[in-house]
Design goal:
By secondary structure, this protein is an all-alpha fold. It has a single domain (9-66), classed as Homeodomain-like (Arc Repressor Mutant, subunit A, Orthogonal Bundle). Helices cover 78% and strands 0% of the residues. It is built from five helices and no strands. The termini are far apart.
Length: 68
């Protein structure tokens, strides 16, 4: 592997990032109580199973979004 290959994001990193971007969008739009995981996953282009692979629940996902 060349050094360039190692810097390219992995598919799993891209999927997690897409979920977090979608989560941010919906959180700003609806707030935590109005946050719907189905809407988040639809916008991110992933399944609900993928969401729960990365995050235990929506609170954990929001916590990940707020991490520095």
């Amino acid at each position: 592997r060349s050094p360039t290959d190692r810097r390219q994001p992995q598919k799993s990193d891209l999927r997690r990032s897409a979920i977090l971007e979608s989560l941010d969008h919906h959180l700003r739009e609806s707030g935590f109580d109005g946050l719907n995981i189905a809407d988040v996953t639809r916008r991110a282009g992933v399944t609900r199973s993928a969401f729960y692979f990365y995050f235990e629940n929506k609170a954990a996902a929001v916590a990940a979004l707020l991490e520095p």
